[in-house]
Amino acid sequence: MTSAINPNDIDGTYPIAGQDNNSQGFRDNFTNTRTNFQYAANEITDLQNKAVLKSALTGTVLDNNMAGSPLSDANISDFSAVAAILGTTSGSVTINYVSGHYQTVTATSGASISLAFVNFPTAGNFGIVRVAITILNTASTVVLPAAVSVGTSNLQGYNAGTISYDQTGTFTYDFTTSDGGTTISVFDLNRNMDPIYLPSSESATGIGGVISIYTTATYIDASIPGTGTLPVGVDGQIKTLMIAVAGNSYTVTVNNAGWKTSGNGTLTMPSSIGAAVTLQYINSKWYCIGNNGCSFS
């Protein structure tokens, strides 16, 4: 803005010393001085109401609320975001966008939480909030709202709106939207998003539990009798099972077996070392794409 203050309105040579001076000159100078003071007061008040400040002015509370005003062509450093610590809880958890771009929550051990998102930026503006969820017990799950519909196809542990966990720890997700929260995308920041190409493996010894779908390979120590169950996978996912130590046959119950018309099937691996099978999850079923000595029923 251009200041309305005009110092040229004041005659700095008046009054002239050593002679009579017309009183009108005094009145003109006083009037113009008063007018400029008013201009100054108005402009200072306007600045106080609108300027971004480093600290609060004397007698005021700092409020740098930009109220949606644009900020462009900025070069910033040492920038931080407010963290909202939501504590340990269960049931519904509200992620309020205005509370901070980074929010943390811990699921009560063994309990589940349901996320709800509020106050995202209006449609046409991009919003992102990072949520770190601590899981203390693998019995806990995280339920996502129906609006979270993008990025879920390869989200580890996700099935029909719910994320399950095969291990404890802190799992961090980014949630983004550009339509005011009608459609929300999710991105898993600290677990491999695509189980198809997981490079990791697990070792199983005489287990009778669930075979992980979060590893590419499972090495079986058959020196102790055991059985396992292979859960449903993600379309395109590859899973390999192999006998690393001989001793006993190993039976796997396979959910959605491709060699069955419907339902589960049984995969029997002989006791000999090197027996192996490679399965791929296609069209919601596990199909055998490689076999060394295993049988199916």
Describe this protein's structure.
This protein has 297 residues and is mainly beta. It folds into three domains: 7-50; 83-188; 195-296, Jelly Rolls (Sandwich). It is 9% helix and 37% strand. The chain contains one helix and 20 strands. It has one helix at 23-50; strands spanning 83-89, 91-96, 102-107, 113-118, 127-135, 141-143, 148-150, 158-159, 162-164, 169-177, 184-188, 201-205, 217-221, 226-230, 238-245, 250-254, 265-269, 276-282, 285-292, 295-296. The strands form four sheets. The protein has a six-stranded mixed β-sheet with strand order 1-3-5-10-11-7, with no helix packed on it. A five-stranded mixed β-sheet has the order 2-4-6-9-8, with no helix packed on it. Strands 12-13-15-18-19 form a five-stranded mixed β-sheet, with no helix packed on it. A hairpin with a 2-residue loop joins strand 18 (276-282) and strand 19 (285-292). The longest helix is centred in the first third of the chain and has 28 residues, at 23-50. The radius of gyration is 34 Å and the shape is rod-shaped.
- From the alpha-carbon coordinates, what is the Rg to the nearest angstrom? 34 Å
**How many individual β-strands?**
20
Mean pLDDT comes to: 88
Structural class: mainly beta
Terminal CA distance reads 82 Å
**In percent, how helical is the residue content?**
under 10%
Biggest beta sheet attributes: 6 strands, mixed
What is the chains' assembly state?
single chain
Apparent shape: rod-shaped
What is the ordering of alpha helices and beta strands? HEEEEEEEEEEEEEEEEEEEE
Question: Approximately how much beta-strand content do the residues carry?
Answer: 35-45%
Low-confidence stretches: none
Helix count? 1
Give the total of domains. Answer: 3
